[in-house]
Amino acid sequence: MLSAYFRLLRAGYVLAREGALSMISAKDLPPALAPLRAGLWLGRLIERPSVRKTGRVERLNKALNKLGPTYVKFGQTLATRPDVVGAGIANDLAGLQDRMDPFDPTLVPAILKAALEDKADELTELSAPIAAASIAQVHQAKLRPADGLPKAVAVKILRPGVAARFMSDIESFYVAARLADRLSASTKRLRPIEVVQTLDRSAQLELDLRLEAAAISEMAENIKDDTGFVIPSVSWDHVAQNVLTTSWVDGIPIRDHAALDAVGVDRKALASNLLQSFLRHAIRDGFFHADMHPGNLFADPRTGDVIAVDFGIMGRINRKERRFLADILYGFITRDYRMVAERHFEIGYVPKDQSVDDFALAIRSIGEPLHGRTASDISMARVLGQLFAITDLFDMQTRPELVLLQKSMVLVEGVARALDPHLDIWTVAEPVVGDWLRKEAGPIGQIETLGEHLKVMAEAAGRVPVILAQAELALADYHANKHRHNDGLMRVMMLGLMGIAGVTLLALLWRITVFSGW
Question: Per the database record, which ranges form the ABC1 atypical kinase-like domain (predicted)?
Answer without folding.
Answer: 96-343
